[in-house]
Sequence to fold (210 residues):
Amino acid sequence: MLQSYLTVKGNGKHEIIIEKSRFISHIARTESEEEAQVFIQHIKKLHKDATHNCSAYLIGEHDQIQKALDDGEPSGTAGVPILEVLKKKGLKDTTVVVTRYFGGIKLGAGGLIRAYSKSTSEGIDATGVVERKLMRVIGTYIDYTWLGKLENELRSSIYEVKEIHYLENVMIETYVEETGKESFISWMTELTNGQSRIEEGEQLYLEREK
Fold:
């Protein structure tokens, strides 16, 4: 699993007009080729009256799956420019469909490449990008008498609380970087005078906006 990577925040849509043609970019986070294809077909159905629905996607930790589709535009003027923007921005697990409604003015190969690149770039910016960082969830079991102190300390620290479980004892789940596990455990132990029980949980990705 990658320690961290960038992807789009979620689904988004953005429209620009270039020489009377409408370019509508549709953005989605897709974690498999099947998801990417489902999204592309959905947009094509939604805009079946459009002149073109060009697309590209990058899937996998090491961008193992890449595809660019020109959908009737001259070869290399639509799908590849969309894909290149994804690569330039360093995004993973992302699919983009750019819908074009022709406005009557031909753009030429260079103009098309610039238009599809611009539409993709602006669409991604409008949707937003997040960094997904691999974290270890650490559970700290404490008596209720320690809750106020620990919660205050955690909320004002570099750590992010995932969830607090109110059971017979309290269990606080915290996201901790793998390299910082030992110092976190030492800190918790010190704060509770050794009266806490600490367990390492699963690894999860924590998302933060870029």
Q: What stands out?
A: Strands lie at 4-8, 12-18, 21-29, 52-59, 65-69, 94-101, 129-142, 160-166, 170-176, 197-209. The two ends are 20 Å apart (CA to CA). The mean pLDDT is 96.
